[in-house]
Amino acid sequence: MKVPCVVLADDHSLILAGVRSLLGTFCEVLEQVGDGRSLVDTALRLRPDLILLDVSMPILNGIDAARQIKKAWPQAKLLFLSVHSSPVYLREALNAGGSGYLLKSSAAEELRTAVETVLRGKIYIAPAFGASIVHTLFTPTGRRPGASNKLTGRQREVLQLIAEGRSNKEAAAILNVSVKTVEFHRGRIMTKLGVHTAAELARCAMRERLVGE
Asked: Looking at domain 5-141, which CATH architecture does it have?
């Protein structure tokens, strides 16, 4: 029987080491990365059987990375492994194309079950969320309208980089666009969110978990 191939993404080396150890008995880890942009490139290059990723990562968060991967490769299977136990992030992860959501606090006990469930084409949601919470996720009241929902995908990328303290020039290099393009997006973001300073932008990004923790 073929051993499933996995790509890991988390910005904490200890977490990566721990997850890799847990997967070692039943999966082959092809590569591990520490930020969302590297994950997109690696996932689309290697096309693994499963992508195991965190929500909060630098340069590009896991939610937006998942959106980009699924847009380019709809067959991708993504399992989120996160510290965030709020149903808001669970729903965002599923809406972004995730097939599962596992909490880091219970990874040792649940990881194999979660991986096997997602590889079978089914959805896995950590039991800690409870049946009643899972039910509300798929109702109109289950989604919290976030400020960043007003933004395009590229604007969300620019917002995260600004909030991480990147200059316009650095953001332009990462996104492979001109500085003027970044400046344009920055102006549009501030207008849409009704903010006037980089500090206010950073607070918006933190509220939306666009910045790694």
From this structure: 3-Layer(aba) Sandwich (3.40)
Dihedral angle at the C-alpha atoms of 170, 171, 176, 179, nearest 10 degrees?
-80
Q: pTM score, two decimals?
A: 0.76
Residue 137 is given by DSSP the state: H
Options 3.40.50.300, 3.40.50.620, 1.10.10.10, 1.20.120.420; CATH for 147-207 is 1.10.10.10
Taking each helix axis from N to C terminus, what angle separates 153-163 and 198-207, rounded to the nearest 10 degrees? 110
CA distance 201 to 122: 37
Residue 81, both tokens? 């492994």
Q: Which of 120, 38, 113, 41 is nearest to 77 (CA)?
A: 120
- For residues 46 and 30, give the distance between their C-alpha atoms in angstroms, rounded to a whole number: 8
Query: Please, are residues 16 and 10 in contact by the beta-carbon 8 Å criterion?
Result: yes
Tens digits of residue pLDDT in 2-24: 899 999 999 999 999 999 999 98
